[in-house]
Amino acid sequence: MGSGADFKAFEAEGWSARADSYDRLMGRVTDRVAGALLDAASVGPGDRVLDVATGTGAVAAAAVARDAEVTGVDISEEMLDVARERVPSGRFLVADAEELLLDEQPFDAVVAGFLINHLPDPERAVAAWGRALRPGGRLSLSLWNPPEANRFFGLIGDALDEAEPGEDSVPPGPDPYRFADAGELAALFAGASLSEPQVTRLDFDQPVEDVEDLWRGLLGGSVRSAARVKALPEAERRRVRRRLERFAARYRKGNHLAVPVSVRLGSAARG
């Protein structure tokens, strides 16, 4: 099994294990991006939408609220079980985003929220998504900006970077911030023969009840970061938790935290 396959298996297991905890915090963050992701793909009433990495169904639910018809795919059956309950009118299938073969009419829009940064072969995936579009249909993607801007992940990253190394718990995987670079994202679209690229940025502050909410939410809504924490000895894990509390203190506003979130959005059309 190659490293790309190792990483995909690691992620599939990790996301399946987090189906019941993802929406505790991470889902609250990604929900706030769903509308912008659909706007970037020009999703409106009657559109047929393919939601790749649908997860617990936030984007699918937002699309249905626009009177669109949604097919959602994900690598995790457990995540899809949550999505099916959340969006009864949607159609949900287990599928590998890099090997997407859907024998049906083309879609008006394809959306992929917070997925491209997880894929060992993003070029192959985007080419497949482009083929799933009708001529003139749009593909839109979202991904996290680097931790200097996206403190939601930057805080736990900083706390972990000061930790004594634990066992190597994360298989080699893709650079999570490669496509936060606007030029890289535009080149990704061009390589799939998609046109009219648009690349934008979305920033907001995410309310978080307290550091414990942040800690539990990150561990219950991420795979790579959570695996790094889990690999640490218990004493070092407690030190990481204390560092997170110290680093997060600057974002306290009244009785809660307001943690900066920064997202890259990109879209392009099939000619």
Can you count the beta strands?
8
Give me the Rg, rounded: 18 Å
State mean pLDDT (0 to 100 scale). 95
CATH architecture: 3-Layer(aba) Sandwich
User: What string gives the helices and strands in order?
Assistant: HHEHEHEEHEHHEHHHEE
Give the full name of the CATH homologous superfamily: Vaccinia Virus protein VP39
Spans of at least 5 consecutive residues whose pLDDT stays below 50 are: none
**Percent in helix:** 40-55%
The largest β sheet comes out as:
8 strands, mixed
CATH topology: Rossmann fold
Structural domain count? 1
Count, helices: 10
Structural class: alpha/beta
Distance between the termini: 37 Å
Sheet-strand content, in percent, reads: 15-25%
Mass-distribution shape: globular
Q: Which CATH class?
A: Alpha Beta
Describe this structure as you would to a colleague.
The protein has 271 residues and is α/β, with parallel strands linked by helices. It has a single domain (3-270), classed as 3-Layer(aba) Sandwich (Rossmann fold). 41% of the residues lie in helices and 24% in strands. It is built from ten helices and eight strands. Strands 1, 2, 3, 4, 5, 6, 7 and 8 form an eight-stranded mixed sheet that branches. Strand 4, helix 5 and strand 5 form a beta-alpha-beta unit. Helix 2 packs across helix 3 and helix 6 (151-161) crosses helix 10 (234-248). The longest helix has 15 residues, at 3-17. It is globular, with a radius of gyration of 18 Å. The relative contact order is 0.17.
